[in-house]
């Protein structure tokens, strides 16, 4: 379920709306982006209506995104991990790419790409994918971050 | 020389003996001569036969035929949550010739009841792997749903068979799909023998019984109504000989037939025949063999043919054009029914099966799948293939090429272009058919090209504007310009830029004085406004300040490989690029600063099913995530409030889009490049003769893009905010620090530490809770 997955990523657009709603005068800095880029605050008898925020899917909600027990890209992660276990790096890469076609912001898939290219001796490509994966990391994924960083910056242990 | 004196006594007997000897010698000479002539003839004949034999074996043992390369679209993947709309699924099923039915009972059928769809996927081959037929069911939440809601099948993710979209066939025009005898349904083989050569298993290539039977039949009819050729003879005639009617050809046929039968088994010969036989014609393309004919007439694998379909194909052996099911349906059905009767008489089917089969109409597809339906996309595929394979190999080695084309997206893009151009011509009183255009749609992230349109008539095989036209890109260059400024660290989205008149002396002494499209000077404006409204004067001044070479370098980093002259006009788009190259450039922006070369091919397989090459995803970090985030935000403002704001007259507000319009001097070119979270679309509209048009990027190319994305299921931009980026309330007019309750304030992203510090005057505004905010609060 792509849409809900992306929503579940950190800083991915829902939280900011709350800030917009409760925007605090005098506090100039906020960590969150607006719902409508470029929307200007105006005093108006009919204030500008930004787009309704996306709703969190509810169980039984007909408008909600479909629910699956396991995200579909997880299948590709599992298949890629199995290939890695058998040192079949090309298949692992292939499976990871298929997963990215479903969810292009899944950092685990970038880690698989990075590890597999590293094993194939293509360290530059490995580093690039690891760096890309770091862009999509959320909080609470320290181990993943550590693994990605190792491959992204192999000459910098920190 | 001394004269000899012959004696009489010796002369007479000698004379007698001599006569006798002469007679003997004369006869002997004749016999000897005859012997030698005969020997020579035998040797010649043997040599000739040997040569024929060599010819037969040479071709039969090696690669018998040149095989076309086949090009396939990407297989549509179905799963719960897949971004597949009902419209998209309908287009895909139609393109694959699925039959709508009430109840799905066999592969190749689908039923659509309300929001529930059942599909029986066909069996098909992927490389060397045989993918079985599979029933599946899915639902949409509504008719307009943009994704699949629930999905039921044996697997969580199921791909439909990929549509064949073209082929690169041999120069001879002969096309065939090579098939092993084991893959041919036994009923097909048996029927063929029953109809064409009943004694095939018994004769040695030539059947005297068949010849005499044909002779009698022809004698009786007073014309040639029946042939006496065996299947082997037919094969020899088709494979090695011409249609010439002469004794020498007949002799060759006989010799080659005997050779073929001598060296090869019946199964080898039958397999070759099944692949060789001519079964139809489509333009220059000749359809050979039952496997290709099965796809050509029924759009199915030969192994899935039913009784009446087998009968039709076998009936075509007698004359594919004469019995064409499209041009001569009555005749074709009569021939099919004759074959069905032979099948019954030969014990291949029962009376019940015969009755059932006779009651069936011809089930051929409405028209054969065109090999030229997607000339622009296939043009791109060929271009990429030719980097790795010589043309001769593509035309002969039977490669299978899996591409990235999404047929439903392609259809949407084609219709959006042709319909919108027609509307624009009416609206702006442009002569009919003057406008031309091109569209390229790319999947963001993978860089896979989903659709290419190179002409408003998408079936036209001519100039491919998506790939081959080189037009000035106008303001499409500006994201690269502003990105360069943002990357320098000296500019933010709020930095005031001077949009006053510009005068710049060039090296040749001329003075460059670019002006705004509206002719109005805007004074100091924040950087994001200059981009959103595409102010030329601010852009020209900025470009000169940060360096033209720096801007050109950014354009290269974003994926444009061709040389660009480092002249001031570059910053206003005096760069000629094709829509495909513009897609490369904008894909890097859409892909959050990661450059991934666009790909039209996924994999290439050899004729034996072995994978030759995979075209993997490549990535190179072209711009930092911070700068990429900022420029993306500015282009979202362009779409919401700037020159591209007309997007939202038809797109839902909830869909976040980033984009840029482009218009060139005298409005000769109209561009729009825009992307969502999942798809990038680049549209060019103009005239082939480069004539000025009453169109801008916003009024020409943008409506095409909008028409496409109105239908295309696409994900909103929803970027992950980099940790070094923070949002700050600033005054929209001055770019100075402001607050959320100040009139005219807006939130802009800044790289931490670069946000403005000087505070603008704050005129407090009264807040009113909007309905959605209340709703949001209630739900949270």
TrEMBL record, chain A:
Keyword Nucleotidyltransferase: no
Signal peptide residue numbers: 1-27
Domain of life of the organism encoding this protein: Bacteria
Keywords from the named record: Signal
Region (Disordered): 30-67
InterPro entries to which the protein is assigned, alphabetical: TPR-like_helical_dom_sf (IPR011990)
Protein name listed in UniProt: Tetratricopeptide repeat protein
Taxonomic source organism: Halioxenophilus aromaticivorans
UniProtKB/TrEMBL annotation, chain B:
Residue stretches making up the Penicillin-binding protein transpeptidase domain: 437-678
Active site (record annotation): 196 (proton donor), 475 (acyl-ester intermediate)
Gene: mrcB
GO function terms (MF aspect): penicillin binding; peptidoglycan glycosyltransferase activity; serine-type D-Ala-D-Ala carboxypeptidase activity
SUPFAM superfamilies in the record: beta-lactamase/transpeptidase-like (SSF56601), Lysozyme-like (SSF53955)
Task performed by this protein: Cell wall formation. Synthesis of cross-linked peptidoglycan from the lipid intermediates. The enzyme has a penicillin-insensitive transglycosylase N-terminal domain (formation of linear glycan strands) and a penicillin-sensitive transpeptidase C-terminal domain (cross-linking of the peptide subunits).
GO biological process: one example: regulation of cell shape
Bifunctional transglycosylase second domain location: 78-153
Basic residues bias (residue ranges): 1-14
Main location: membrane
Domain Glycosyl transferase family: 172-343
Protein name: Penicillin-binding protein 1B
Subcellular location: Cell membrane
InterPro entries: Beta-lactam/transpept-like, Glyco_trans_51, Glycosyltr_51/Transpeptidase, Lysozyme-like_dom_sf, PBP_1b, PBP_transglycosylase, PCN-bd_Tpept, UB2H
Gene Ontology, cellular component aspect: outer membrane-bounded periplasmic space; peptidoglycan-based cell wall; plasma membrane
Gene3D superfamilies noted in UniProt: Biosynthetic peptidoglycan transglycosylase-like (1.10.3810.10), DD-peptidase/beta-lactamase superfamily (3.40.710.10), Penicillin-binding protein 1b domain (3.30.2060.10)
């Amino acid at each position: 379920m792509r849409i809900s997955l992306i929503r579940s990523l950190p800083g991915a657009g829902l939280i900011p709306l709350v800030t917009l709603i409760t925007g605090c005068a005098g506090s100039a800095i906020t960590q969150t982006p607006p719902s409508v880029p470029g929307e200007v605050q105006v005093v108006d008898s009919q204030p500008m209506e930004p787009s309704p925020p996306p709703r969190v899917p509810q169980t039984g909600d007909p408008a909600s995104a479909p629910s699956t027990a396991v995200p579909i890209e997880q299948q590709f992660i599992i298949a890629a991990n199995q290939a890695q276990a058998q040192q079949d790096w090309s298949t692992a890469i292939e499976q990871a790419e298929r997963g990215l076609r479903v969810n292009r912001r899944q950092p685990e898939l970038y880690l698989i790409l990075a590890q597999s290219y590293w094993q194939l001796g293509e360290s530059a490509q490995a580093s690039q994918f690891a760096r890309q994966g770091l862009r999509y990391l959320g909080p609470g994924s320290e181990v993943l971050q550590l693994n990605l960083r190792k491959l992204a910056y192999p000459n910098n242990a920190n | 020389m001394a004269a000899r004196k012959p004696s009489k006594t010796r002369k007479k007997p000698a004379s007698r003996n001599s006569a006798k000897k002469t007679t003997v010698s004369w006869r002997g000479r004749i016999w000897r001569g005859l012997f030698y002539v005969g020997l020579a003839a035998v040797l010649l004949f043997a040599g000739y036969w040997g040569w024929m034999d060599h010819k037969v074996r040479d071709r039969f043992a090696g690669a018998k035929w040149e095989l076309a390369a086949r090009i396939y679209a990407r297989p549509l993947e179905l799963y719960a949550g897949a971004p597949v709309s009902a419209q998209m699924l309908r287009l895909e099923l139609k393109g694959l010739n699925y039959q709508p039915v009430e109840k799905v009972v066999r592969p190749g059928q689908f039923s659509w009841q309300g929001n529930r769809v059942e599909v029986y996927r066909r069996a098909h081959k992927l490389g060397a792997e045989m993918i079985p037929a599979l029933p599946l069911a899915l639902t949409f939440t509504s008719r307009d749903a943009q994704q699949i809601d629930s999905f039921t099948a044996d697997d969580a993710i199921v791909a439909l068979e990929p549509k064949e979209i073209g082929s690169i066939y041999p120069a001879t025009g002969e096309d065939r799909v090579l098939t092993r005898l084991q893959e041919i349904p036994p009923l097909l083989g048996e029927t063929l023998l029953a109809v064409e050569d009943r004694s095939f298993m018994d004769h040695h290539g030539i059947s005297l019984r068949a010849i005499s039977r044909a002779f009698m039949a022809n004698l009786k009819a007073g014309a040639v109504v029946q042939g006496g050729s065996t299947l082997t003879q037919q094969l020899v005639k088709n494979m090695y000989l011409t249609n010439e009617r002469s004794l020498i050809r007949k002799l060759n046929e006989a010799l080659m037939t005997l050779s073929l039968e001598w060296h090869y088994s019946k199964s080898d010969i039958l397999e070759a025949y099944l692949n060789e036989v001519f079964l139809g014609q489509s333009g220059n393309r000749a359809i050979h063999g039952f496997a290709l004919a099965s796809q050509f007439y029924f759009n199915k694998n030969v192994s899935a043919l039913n009784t009446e379909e087998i009968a039709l194909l076998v009936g075509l052996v007698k004359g594919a054009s004469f019995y064409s099911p499209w041009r001569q349906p009555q005749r074709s059905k009569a021939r099919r029914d004759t074959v069905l009767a032979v099948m019954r008489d030969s014990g291949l089917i029962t009376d019940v099966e015969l009755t059932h089969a006779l009651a069936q109409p011809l089930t051929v597809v409405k028209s054969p799948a065109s090999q030229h339906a997607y000339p622009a996309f296939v043009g791109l595929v060929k271009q990429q293939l030719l980097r790795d394979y010589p043309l001769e190999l593509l035309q002969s080695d039977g490669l299978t090429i899996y591409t990235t084309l999404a047929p439903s997206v392609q259809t949407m893009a084609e219709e959006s272009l042709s319909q919108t151009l027609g509307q624009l011509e009416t609206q702006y009183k442009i002569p009919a058919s003057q406008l031309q255009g091109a569209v390229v749609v790319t999947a963001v992230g993978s860089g896979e090209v989903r659709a290419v349109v190179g002409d408003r008539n998408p079936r036209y095989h001519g100039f491919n504007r998506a790939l081959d036209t080189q037009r000035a890109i106008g303001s499409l260059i500006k994201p690269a310009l502003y990105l360069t400024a943002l990357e320098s660290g000296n500019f933010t989205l709020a930095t005031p830029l001077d949009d006053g008149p510009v005068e710049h002396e060039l090296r040749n002494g001329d003075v460059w004085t670019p002006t705004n499209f509206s002719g109005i000077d805007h004074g100091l404006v924040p950087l994001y406004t200059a981009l959103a409204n595409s102010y030329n004067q601010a852009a020209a001044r900025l470009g000169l300040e940060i360096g033209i070479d720096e801007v050109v370098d950014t354009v290269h980093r974003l994926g444009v490989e061709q040389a660009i002259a480092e002249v001031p006009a570059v910053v206003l788009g005096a760069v000629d690029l094709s829509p495909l190259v513009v897609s490369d450039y904008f894909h890097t922006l859409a892909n959050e600063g990661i450059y991934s070369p666009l790909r039209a091919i996924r994999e290439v397989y050899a004729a034996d099913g072995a994978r030759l090459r995979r075209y993997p995803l490549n990535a190179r970090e072209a711009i930092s995530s911070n700068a990429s985030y900022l420029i993306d935000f500015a282009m979202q403002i362009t779409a919401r409030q700037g020159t591209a704001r007309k997007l939202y007259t038809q797109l839902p507000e909830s869909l976040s889009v980033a984009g840029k319009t482009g218009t060139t001097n005298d409005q000769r070119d109209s561009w729009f490049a825009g992307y969502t979270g999942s798809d990038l679309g680049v549209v060019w509209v103009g005239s082939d003769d480069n004539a000025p048009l009453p169109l801008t990027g916003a009024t020409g190319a943008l409506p095409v893009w909008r028409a496409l994305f109105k239908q295309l299921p696409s994900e909103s931009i929803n970027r992950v905010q980099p940790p070094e980026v923070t949002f700050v309330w600033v005054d929209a007019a001055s770019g100075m620090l402001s607050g959320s309750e100040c009139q005219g304030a807006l939130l802009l992203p800044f790289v931490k530490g670069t946000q403005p510090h000087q505070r603008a005057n704050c005129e407090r505004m009264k807040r009113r809770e909007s309905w959605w905010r209340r709703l949001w609060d209630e739900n949270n």
